[in-house]
Amino acid sequence: MAELKDTLEEKRKLxxxxxxxxxxxxDEWNSRTKEHTVIRNELNAEVRELIQNVRQQREIREQMNxxxxxxxxxxxxxxxxxxxxxxxxxxxRSEKDEREPGHxxxxxxxxxxxxxxxxxxxxxxxxxxxxxxxxxxxxxVMKRMKEIRSQxxxxxxSEDSNGDLKEARGLLKEAMIEQEDAHVEVQKAAxxxxxxxxxxxxxxxxxxxxxxxxxxAHRELRKSKKEADKAHHFYIVSLxxxxxxxxxxxxxxxxxxGEAQRGxxxxxxxxxxKLMSGDTISTEEMMQLxxxx
Length: 293
What we know:
Elements: H1 2-99, H2 114-129, H3 136-161, H4 163-252, H5 258-276, H6 283-288
Helix pairs in contact: 1-4, 2-3
């Protein structure tokens, strides 16, 4: 009996060691589960915040797109005013030309305007910078440019002396300023809409990235919880085996009485015989010993 008690005591120590090991493993996995839960929840909170940012930028983009449409409508009206002002100015200039002495009817000649003269002057000025006119030709071009400046000055002075022409030029200038301002507003609104769109795409990418991290944390959480449950199961089995061994030891010390003791002793002796012969007792057999208190 002493040898049997020693064997059981060794088994008790071994099972106790295993139980402690499983408990430690379970607690470690539970700790990891808590960590992954915190990480997952934080990432999910960030995802929700990022989604709000995406929605906000989408709303800003839509507002800016609506503003672009409004500003384009204003610009279109300004374009019409410019066109009307140019038409009025051309009409006033034509009437002025017809009233001037020496005006010829019949075949229509190409009309010379301040705008056409400025365009010719700019072209000659560029050609001079590029070195296209050298020698005697350079003098001719310089003379022509001087004539153009004088002609522009005379034409502008003549138009300024004409009240209708001056008014038409003023209207055109105002219309062109309004047109330019409207165009600038369209560009500003379009730029703001594009910036909101680009930022929305960036937030969308960040949502996808954070969501993937959250899903990864959730997978790790499920893995650690599964391992913790497995370790807990083995821990419970170890405890039951430990209690069973302790019950056997108590039974051998005579704590059990009557028929229950004799029945338990017979089954215990069978199991102990297996232990003494070096056979391994299964978990089911170890748990079966719980009946013998």
